[in-house]
Write a sequence for this structure.
């Protein structure tokens, strides 16, 4: 699996795990007194978060990202749905398989 494809997969998985943690596991912990969900989903999300951050640094050159776009992709990791947008608009190949480039 190439690095860009790995970043796409991890981006989607990280955003999904963040939403599961935020919308399902945390309410069960604090409103239902059931902390088991956070005990399971929390570490999974943590590993996916670290993988996303690492892959952003590794794939940035292949994607042609400048420092600004790289920083924005890293900031996206701490926002619940932003990695979905990064994958959709900045990573996903278009046309002949070329990465999406930022419009001037």
């Amino acid at each position: 699996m190439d690095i860009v494809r790995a970043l796409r997969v991890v981006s989607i998985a990280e955003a999904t795990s963040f939403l599961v943690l935020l919308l399902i596991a945390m309410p069960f912990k604090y409103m239902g007194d059931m902390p088991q969900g956070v005990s399971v989903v929390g570490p999974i999300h943590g590993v996916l978060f670290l993988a996303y951050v690492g892959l952003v640094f590794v794939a940035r050159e292949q994607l042609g990202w400048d420092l600004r776009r790289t920083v924005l992709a890293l900031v996206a990791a701490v926002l619940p749905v932003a990695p979905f947008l990064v994958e959709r608009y900045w990573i996903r190949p278009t046309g002949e398989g070329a990465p999406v480039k930022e419009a001037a």
